[in-house]
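Aim 2 progress update. The chain analyzed this quarter is reproduced below.
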Amino acid sequence: MKIKAIIFDVDGLMADTEFHHCESIAELMSFYGVKLTKAYQVGLVGLSTKHNFLDLKRIHGLKEGLNSLLAKREKLYIKRIKTSGIKAFPGLKDILLYAKKNDIKIAVGSSSLRPQIDTVVPILIRSTGIKTPYRRYFDTVVTGSDVKHTKPAPDIYNLVSKNLGISPAECLVLEDSVTGVKAAKAAGMCCIAVKNRYSKKHDLSISDYQVKSLKEAFRIIKKIEGK
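Predicted C-alpha cells:
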C-alpha cells in the first residue's frame, strides 16, 4: 500500500483527553444530582458528546435542552484542557514529521465539536515543538460540527477523503475506539487501532493492525511503506 494520507483521531489517540471528557461530563451531571460511575464514564469513550447527553437525558429524565447541556459541558471541558498541562503522546511528532518529509497529506477526523478541536489540537501540536498554526499544518480538519452523522458512521472520513482529493484506499487512519475503527473501515480505509487505558480491553479486531502506542504505530506505517 502506498499511503497518500494519514488521518488522525484526536481524543485518546493524540493524547489522554478522554479523561477530561469524562470528568467534565461527570462534573456537569453532578449539578443535577446525578453521580456517574467510573464504569459508565468508560462507556462514554468514542461516542460523540451529543450522543452521550441524549443517552443521559433519556436515562435520568433531564429537562434541560440538549444544546444548553452541550454548551455547559464544553465550557467545563475547555477550562480543564487549558489548565491541564496536557501533552501529546510520544510518537505523534514522529508520525507528523515523517508524513511531511514523505509528501503524505495529514488530516484530523474527530467526532468532537469544532470549538473543542480548535482548543485541544493547537495545545497538543505545540507540546511537540511544532509552532505552525495547526489549521495550516494539517491539510484538512473535519469535526463533528461538519457532518450530520458522527462515528461510527463513515461521514467524517468520507469528508476528509473528499477534501483531500485522495481515494479512501490510499488513506490510513489512526484510531483508538471501537466507534472510530468502525467508521474508518466503513469508509473503506486502512486502520491502525492504537489501544489506550480506556480501550485496551475493547474488541478492535476489525482494524487492520492493533498496537499499544503511537511509537508502535509509526513502525507499522514505515513497514507498510516498505521503509
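The longest helix spans residues 66-84. The chain has a mean pLDDT of 93. These observations will guide the mutagenesis experiments scheduled for the next reporting period.
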